[in-house]
Amino acid sequence: MQHPASGTAGHRRARRSVGLLLVVALLPFLVPTGAPAAPPDLQPIALKVAQEFVLPRYMELATDAAAERDAWDRFCRQGADIAALDHAYYETADAWSAIEILHYGPIGIGVRHERMAHWPERKNAVDKALTALLAHDDLAGMTPEAFAQTSVAGQGLSALERLLFDPENRQALTTGPEAAKRCAAGKLIATSLATIAGEVSLEWSASDGPVASLGAGDPAKAKLMVTRIATDLLSIYQLVGDMKLDAIMGESAELARPALAEGRRSARSSRALQLDLEAARELTRLLIGTSPDAAPILAALDEGIVLTDALPPDFGPLALEPAGRAELALIRQQVREARDLSNATVPAVLGVTLGFNSLDGD
Hints:
65% of the residues lie in helices and 0% in strands. It has helices at 9-26, 42-78, 83-97, 112-116, 125-134, 144-147, 157-165, 167-174, 179-205, 210-215, 219-249, 269-288, 294-309, 322-350.
């Protein structure tokens, strides 16, 4: 997987230019042509989404999270190079960004989604939870079961990022009297991530899991899965547009809040944004890719991905100056275009009525 420091500015500008030409050429066609006369058979669509999107991405997450757990174990036992922890974090964070679009299924049970990554946070919840965790007298002796009862905000990738990449925490992790305690905290968090990821992956493919029910030829379950996953697909535009772009940009440079950018400490704000859009593109292709109405949605997402690839690793500071805001506004425009086209097209093409959006709150 590509990480924040990879790629060159020239390569990115070239890709952006190609993408701009592509979207300009497609502008006359960015209008849905209408839904098919009859809804499609949702059984093969559900199976395709499960087999080509859900299962491999959760398997990747489980593999990377297990490797991260092992990296923390080695680091704490042997004092290995901290760069190994950085690499393991990036791999797991990338794998999570590639599948965080889904709330449907096992990830939605037991607050697992929030325990994987508590973002966006409110009222500095992650720092407070991490501080409370580090105040425990015997972290090395805390069991995974006891850790699962602590604050959700301190259990996932958001807390691990603070522990590993915040300069003060990073120094305390490697030197001084707090190093052992911080290592224990990192091991607890990484173990929890590996446990959740492994459970979710296994439950999706279990004999009584969602995929098995599709193989049994249950049309009602196929429709439920497609409806719920399509709902999750459309909610990603709210996550990316409202929470990952608008909240940082504000209404003006004076009201911008670059510190809210997801993953800014680990310099992967842009990477997380890009992976969200790539996931939305792939899920759109699998759900409605055989319909001509998919083309303008995919074109808008392609352009958003190209523009995002040209951003610096942490795009938050761009919101403070005119040229940077213009760059972010172009991405936001593509996200909104993909959102509007998807809202008008995806439910109609699939013949489903979308339900509750998990990002809308109670």
